[in-house]
Amino acid sequence: MPRIIVERNFDPPVTPDDLNAVSQRIGGCLDLYRVRWIRSHVSIDRRRMVCEYEAVDAQSVRDVQNAAQAPFERVWPAEVMGEG
């Protein structure tokens, strides 16, 4: 299944509580849109975040973000490199 990347920017920096709240809202939508969360990376300054999902297409991941009211900058399909 394709990997889909979600890019987020935060101003002011995102707090751990905000991340937990969004994570819970997204978690409630994943099965509905047949999307699986893989991992997320947040910058040290908490102003940028990249999330990786597995889904049939990028639109399914956009639908999850919109349903969970999780703001994002871009959603795009990716190819995994260097993974065994």
CATH superfamily: ORF SCO4226, nickel-binding ferredoxin-like monomer
The level-1 CATH class: Alpha Beta
CATH topology: Alpha-Beta Plaits
Structural class: alpha+beta
> How are the strands of the largest sheet arranged?
2-3-1-4
Helix content: 25-40%
What does the largest sheet look like? 4 strands, antiparallel
**Number of helical runs?**
2
Strand % is 25-35%
Second CATH tier, the architecture: 2-Layer Sandwich
Using only C-alpha atoms, the radius of gyration works out to: 12 Å
Distance, first to last CA: 16 Å
Q: Topology, pairings included?
A:
Blueprint: E1 3-9, H1 16-27, E2 36-42, E3 48-54, H2 58-67, E4 74-78
Antiparallel strand pairs: 1-3, 1-4, 2-3
